[in-house]
Amino acid sequence: MGKANRFLTEWFFRSGLIGVLAGMICVGSARAQTAKPVTGPAAVAAPSPEPARKQKSASAVISKQDKPKVIPRVLDKAMPENVRIYVSLGKQRAYLYVGDEIAVDTPISSGKRAGMTPKGDYTVLEKHLDHRSNIYGNFVDRKGRVVRSGVSTKIDSAPSGTVFTGAPMKYFMRLTWTGIGLHVGVLPGYPASHGCIRMPEETAKLFFENVKVGTPAAVGD
Known about the structure:
By secondary structure, the chain is of the alpha+beta class. The protein has a domain at 60-131 and 173-220: L,D-transpeptidase catalytic domain-like (Beta Barrel). 23% of the residues lie in helices and 32% in strands. The chain is built from four helices and eleven strands. It has helices at 3-34, 58-62, 72-75, 201-210; strands at 69-70, 83-88, 93-98, 101-107, 120-123, 126-140, 146-152, 163-174, 181-184, 197-199, 216-220. It has a six-stranded mixed β-sheet with strand order 1-4-3-2-11-5. It starts with a helix and ends with a strand.
């Protein structure tokens, strides 16, 4: 057999094998594409991820509380002898009464856990315009820079080179000698304090100006 004949014979042989292999690959690919998905007990569906819950903004939470209400007609009649305070833990409101009429109705934030703001009948024991907490506050360095914030002197130790600065409690009106009182503070829209009754500054000022040491105050539902 000449070289030309041997070359043609080998070429046809190899072309035939390649054609067969190509055909097998095409058939297998087509079957894979047209194969039906597995159904029934053998099928395991991938769990759908739960949609992430969108956290409410602070402003949306705060807006749930009605704004302070001041009734000038009633407030004008206020005297240290005819006013009293009532705090509703359930409504998260504090009221300044003149006689039997409400002069100021304000949102508050009381103790974050039940019992932290104790219910009961009290009197204003002390008034302090620029009071500071002796328990809660920050550790600051010699230049007044905050090293650790939100500390409690009951459980936290001051880092070396720092001193304790109590949290400001402007317009403080003390109800108990264990630290409970009304004062200016942050209102997040729910009970969040360590026991005191936080108020907006504008209404805390009105309460402070119109009560005296000895003014009746009650904390209830």
